[in-house]
Amino acid sequence: MVLPIMAGLAGTVIPAFSNGAAGVSKLLEWQGLSKAVALSVGTGLASTGLALILTILILAAFAGTPTFSRIRRGLAPLLSVPHAAAALGLAFLIAPSGWIARLLSPELTGWQTPPDLLILNDPWGLALTLGLVAKELPFLLLMSLTALPHIDADRRLTTAATLGYGRISAFIFTLLPDLYRQLRLPTYAVLAYGVTTVDMAMILGPTLPPTLATQITLWMGEASLAMRDTAAAGALLQLTLALLAITIWRVMEILLKRLLVHTAQSAPRLPHLDAPAALLARGAAAVVTAMLMFGLAGLALWSFAGLWQFPDALPESFTFRTWASAAPALAETSAATLLIAVTATLVALALCLGCLQAEATLHLAPTSRATILLYLPLLVPQIAFLPGLQMLALPLGLDGSLGAVAAIHLVFVLPYVFLSLSGPFRAWDARIATAGATLGASDARIFWRLRLPMLSGPLATAAAVGMAVSIGQYLPTLMIGGGRIETLTTEAVALSSGGNRRLIGAYAVLQLLLPALAFFAALTLPMALWRDRLLMRGLE
Amino acid sequence: MHRRTALRLLATLPAFAGFSTKALAAEWDSILSEAKGQTVYWHAWGGDPKINDFITWIGEKAEERYGVTLEHVKLAATSDAVARVLAEQQAGQTEGGAVDLIWINGENFAAMKSQGLLYGPFTDTLPNWPLVDVLGKPATVTDFTLPTDGFESPWAMAQLVFEYDTERLKEPPQSIDSILQWAMSNPGRFTYPQPPDYLGTTFLKQVLYGVMPDPSVLQSPIDDASYEALVAPLWAYLDRLHPALWRAAKAFPQNEPALGQLLADGEIDISFAFNPGRASAEIAAGNLPDTIRTFVLDGGTIGNASFVAIPFNAAHRAGAIVIANLILDPEVQARAQDPAVLGFQTVLDLQSLTPEDRARFDALELGVATLSPADLGPVLLEPHASWMTRIAQDWSSRYGVAQ
Predict the structure, then answer these.
(1) Secretion signal: which residues (chain A) (predicted)?
(2) What is the CA radius of gyration of chain B?
(3) Interchain pair A207, B252: CB under 8 A
């Protein structure tokens, strides 16, 4: 994990400080710098905070209830939506000429032409924050779901309820500390992503100035190549910002923990919080699900649309032309996308299981340094090390092949797979292994016959997360693939520069479909495998 | 430079014509046989499905006629390919490069040429080169005032045209000044792509043509001493225009397709594009209503050409040359001009074609929204590339960081 990142960073540091650090001074001269920095950190912190609060709220209000499985079924497939597709769908939904306005116009609004309202690309980054929340909430929720069964959630909640605690206070005082321990690194990854996102910020974020990450991408794309060193300096600043945001978050964590401990000592039961919290949680879940689903449905509809003018709620005519003309390319890129994703995910699963099993049998405690190293690829902005890495891959002739792309995907897939798998794996009750051993089973037999089957739910989820992460990779595929390896995502981003909603719609549908199939398998496979063993069906 | 021009003059002398034709034919044969079986990686912007389909079609022709396989590497920005070649040069990779052919012009070309990243001159070896209208369309050999020197081969002519919906706008404003007047009395219904996007800077250059007392200075590199005074009318114009723009200039569309999408969504009433056939092609594809028409400004609009160039270290140079030649084939050019396909203007001199080839162009239906060549009016040359860079920079410091 460390090697490619360090190598890549070196490739970034050198141009930033060459020519007497010209890149750094040009970066500091840029007038938009302070605003871009504030935007990056602000939208990152705000969206992560909101997404986490909503996640906790939904869990606190509904964990273990029937509503919860409905929310879970609604949100889990949305995790697989690539960021760019989600952003495009959202943009079409909320723009003044978007679907919502079209549904209401002209009957309710009297608008014959779209109103001149600054909804997208607003200078405060509100649309971007909203988009990030919608995208990260399902991820955090799914990460919590794999953790909940292993912190004995149901029993603790029941105990607290008998003591007169309301659901909300019971959850926050008894479960949250343990839950958050497992959620911490995913949250940092979400935060780092929020601060450094390029694809979402390009579609939803402000442009005068844009966020720092977007501006760096624009500098890298400048024809004269004169801004490359500025971009490199910007990439280093971006790295600093990601670390800064995590530090701010860490400080907040400590403060909130003190507050929580302090409040818990007076043991407030707060049962009257439950009803409004449930309402809020239900509302938030409904809004997020609806936004993502309708946004994507809008894109899907565009892929079949003939002429579709404002203020028509539906297209004037429908056509298969988009799909028909794109079919050969779609089939080819889908195949390449799947091949890379499956390879990277399988290798990642094998490596993670190997690590975790070694940790368990040798009784190694995972040091925090080792954990941070593993998550480095998620915390270091891609734009800070990928260009440098590409420079190194070139002379070795390593770039441009499916294998090289799968290898670089592994760098990003592995941490997420480990993230989803390690919690449940470590929380697996070791007494079962002891019982197995007393019956004469070898370590290998315990691993294959007890541990793995019992973890089939988390395993399937981890695989699905891995697939989704791989399918969504843009910059690594482009840079290490030398532009020759086309995946659904590289195609969709290339197309989104052309703004063709019809074709983007077609790609988005497939981008959604492939990981959604993986998630569907993750949900149903354990159920099918363990039809007769209720507690082993995973995810519950 | 001078030696190359002299050589070209020599080659056109009748006494040498027989010899050079023969030599060229032999050279071409060897290129063809070397190209056979090669796979050419053409790095080209991949944002428009119509263009992507056209490139796929060229690939089929290349396979069929020359046994050359064409792979379109779809880019989000041309500079990605430039950066790639630069990275290879810095890594010391002088052969076997990943990029065989690039769709390029203007700044990217200037950057690659000045850094020695291009192979050439090669256009003189192309059998179809004599068909190119280098005299009538000087933009085929001049890229943003920079002579191409045979380092890139043109494939399409472009000219700025404005698009509007006759349903909403009866009399479009036809000068830079009347656009300002119209925008101020119709707030929120006009905008332009955010510089440094090329269409955005093209609009600024078009404004310069409209507000400068003597636009001929645009043909020379900017002169620092007089620059501020020369462009002052541009900023004065924009200061008045911006409050009346779409979203009051607090946001801008990113590029040409995004601007076109605003017209299609009815968010603005006047848009513009660098392709006179774009509106007709979009109508034909069902993306725009058939009430859209185009117009140009009094005194003319900026025009230029798109080119293909070959990197110095291209792995499949012969194949790339064969593709560059194929693109100049009258059949390919006529197909590109068909508004049902692309609606691009040809780079060829129709007078130099055989009657059968000319008939291909005569048979084209230009499309409801496309102006006839006569109505397109005069073509204004692109200013020197230094104007674009400087104006885009100054625009960013004036307007690029919100008020």
Answers:
(1) none
(2) 22
(3) yes
CA pair distance A155, B278, nearest whole angstrom:
66
A436-489 pLDDT, tens per residue? 888 888 888 888 888 888 788 788 878 888 888 888 888 788 778 766 788 887
Phi-psi region of A462 (alpha: psi -120 to 50; beta: other; left: phi over 0): alpha
Looking at chain A from residue 91 to 130, which residues have their Cβ under 8 Å from any Cβ of chain B? 95-97, 113-114, 116-118, 120-123
For chain B, give the number of residues. Answer: 403
Residues 6+ positions from B363 with CB-CB distance below 8 Å: none
How far lies B44's CA from each of A112, B62, B278, in Å? Answer: 39, 17, 18
Per-residue pLDDT tens digits for A331-340 = 888 899 999 9
What pLDDT sits at residue A483?
67
Q: What is the pLDDT averaged over residues A24-33?
A: 89
Judged against a pLDDT cut of 60, whether residue A417 lies above it is answered with yes
Q: Is residue A206 within 8 angstroms of chain B, CB to CB? A: yes
Distance of CA B49 to the CA centre of its chain: 17
Mutant choice from A116, A199, A217 vs B, greatest count of B C-beta within 10 A = A116
Integer CA distances (angstroms), B37 to B34, B67, B138, in order:
8, 6, 35
The residue written with tokens 């697939």 in the block is A467
For the stretch A333-366, pLDDT in tens is: 889 999 999 999 999 999 999 888 888 777 777 6
- CB pair distance less than 8 Å for A307 and B289: yes
Is A220 touching B (CB cutoff 8 A)?
A: yes
Which bin fits A144, alpha (ψ -120 to 50), beta or left (φ > 0)?
alpha
Residue pointed to by tokens 């370590």: A443
Q: What count of other Cβ atoms lies within 10 Å of the Cβ of residue A85?
A: 31
d(CA B202, CA B109): 17
What are the tens digits of pLDDT across the range A282-321?
A: 888 888 888 888 998 998 999 999 889 888 889 988 988 8
If one compares A420 and A240, the residue with the highest pLDDT of the two is A240
Predicted confidence (pLDDT) at residue B360 exceeds the cutoff of 60: yes
- Residue B277 and residue B367 in contact, taking contact as beta carbons nearer than 8 Å: yes
Contact B98 A495 (CB under 8 A): no
Cβ contact (<8 Å) for A221 and B77?
yes
CA A207 to chain centre: 23
DSSP B208-275: HHHH-S-GGGGGS---HHHHHHHHHHHHHHHHHHGGGSGGGGSS---SHHHHHHHHHTTS-SEEEES-
Q: Does A401 touch chain B (CB under 8 A)?
A: no
Asked if residue B384 lies in contact with residue B220, where contact means CB atoms within 8 angstroms, the answer is yes
| Whether A499 and B260 lie within 8 Å, measured CB to CB | yes
CA dihedral B390, B394, B396, B399 (to 10 degrees): -150
Unique residue bearing structure tokens 């790295």? A239
**8 A C-beta contact, residue A211 and residue A43:** yes
Give contacts of B402 with chain A, Cβ < 8 Å: 35, 123, 206, 208-209
The answer to whether A222 contacts chain B (CB < 8 Å) is yes
- Judge whether A253 is closer than 8 Å to chain B, CB to CB: no
Span B11-62, pLDDT tens digits: 444 444 444 677 778 899 999 999 999 999 999 988 788 898 999 999 999 9
Question: Taking CB atoms and an 8 Å limit, are B87 and A491 in contact across chains?
Answer: no
CA geometry: angle A148, A153, A157, nearest 5 deg: 150
Cα A293 from Cα A288, distance rounded (Å): 8
| pLDDT attached to residue B2 | 45
- B273 φ/ψ angles, rounded to the nearest 5 degrees: -150, 160
Tokens 């609604």, residue?
Answer: A74
* Residue among B74, B250, B266 minimizing CB distance to A309: B266
